[in-house]
């Protein structure tokens, strides 16, 4: 789904979300309350400039509209793979974006992520995965690493990883697998405005991804191992 159709289905034809290059932003009215929208489009590569632009919107919302909810619309191919961005410190720019989102949550802003098209790699980690809850459209594409790259990193044969991906969501791309692992809370179907309304009202403010992954069978050990660490003397 393109961002214009999504914004219209969520907020009506006069939604107020605008595009500046790969950046989406706007102040909208939803159920009579203001909401800040931040996002990316066209499978945006997240470089230094785009990460800092998104962070600026988050900081301005905290300064000018304390407590206002934020909706992150996610469509990214991951971090910008360019020497210029590496030299400028893309890791620090993306960390800055993530810390701004985390600070907004700590200051009482409701922060929701919605993967409406594609979410890959670090561009997803520093946005939707830091929100109070990250949801997705059923047709979205989500993955952190392709199997060939995973094979190079883990030194395991790609054929073995492909076999493991058939039964273990940790090794497999796809929005359904991220729901099973708890990284995506739920899929938005039907009336998208109703789905946003439900998310604003009921999405958890604490991190429940490990518990959700255990309950759904996608990550069976993460929650129990984390609890053992917490309980250790």
Architecture overview:
It contains eleven helices and eight strands. It is α/β, with parallel strands linked by helices and 233 residues long. The chain has a domain at 3-138 and 187-202: Alpha-Beta Complex (2-enoyl-CoA Hydratase, Chain A, domain 1). A hairpin with a 2-residue loop joins β2 and β3 (33-40). α2 packs parallel to α4 (90-106).
Percent strand equals 15-25%
The quaternary structure here is single chain
Number of separate strands: 8
The end-to-end span amounts to: 50 Å
Mean pLDDT: 91
CATH level-4 homologous superfamily of the domain at 3-138 and 187-202: 2-enoyl-CoA Hydratase, Chain A, domain 1
Rg estimate, integer Å: 18 Å
The CATH level-2 architecture of the domain at 3-138 and 187-202 is identified as Alpha-Beta Complex
EC number: 4.1.1.87
Protein name: Malonate decarboxylase gamma subunit
Pfam family, one: MdcE
Keywords: Lyase
Summarize the structure.
Helix content is 45%, strand content 21%. It has 233 residues and is of the alpha/beta class.
Observed structural traits:
eight-stranded mixed beta sheet, alpha/beta, 233 residues, 11 helices, 2-enoyl-CoA Hydratase, Chain A, domain 1
Task: Please give the structural blueprint.
Layout: H1 3-11, E1 18-20, E2 23-30, E3 33-40, E4 44-46, H2 48-64, E5 69-79, H3 83-88, H4 90-106, E6 111-120, H5 121-125, E7 133-136, E8 141-143, H6 147-154, H7 158-165, H8 175-181, H9 192-202, H10 209-216, H11 222-231
Parallel strand pairs: 3-5, 4-5, 5-6, 6-7, 6-8
Antiparallel strand pairs: 1-2, 2-3
Helix pairs in contact: 2-4
Protein name: Malonate decarboxylase gamma subunit
GO molecular function: lyase activity
Pfam families: MdcE
């Amino acid at each position: 789904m393109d961002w214009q159709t999504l914004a219209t289905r969520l907020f009506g034809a006069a939604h107020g979300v605008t595009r500046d290059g790969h950046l989406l932003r706007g102040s909208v009215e939803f159920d009579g309350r203001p909401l800040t929208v931040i996002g990316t489009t066209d499978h945006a590569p997240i470089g230094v400039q785009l990460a800092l632009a998104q962070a600026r919107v988050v900081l301005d919302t905290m300064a000018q509209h304390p407590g206002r909810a934020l909706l992150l619309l996610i469509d990214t191919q991951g971090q910008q793979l360019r020497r210029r961005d590496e030299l400028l410190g893309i890791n620090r720019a993306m960390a800055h974006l993530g810390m701004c989102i985390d600070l907004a949550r700590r200051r009482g802003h409701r922060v929701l992520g919605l993967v409406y098209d594609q979410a890959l790699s670090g561009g997803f980690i520093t946005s939707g995965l830091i929100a109070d809850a990250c949801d997705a459209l059923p047709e979205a594409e989500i993955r952190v690493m392709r199997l060939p790259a995973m094979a190079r990193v883990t030194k395991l044969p790609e054929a073995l990883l492909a076999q493991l991906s058939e039964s273990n969501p940790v090794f497999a791309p796809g929005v359904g697998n991220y729901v099973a692992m708890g990284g995506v809370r739920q899929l938005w179907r039907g009336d998208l405005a109703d789905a946003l309304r439900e998310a604003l009202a009921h999405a958890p403010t604490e991190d429940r991804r490990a518990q959700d992954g255990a309950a759904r069978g996608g990550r069976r050990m993460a929650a129990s191992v984390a609890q053992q660490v917490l309980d250790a003397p």
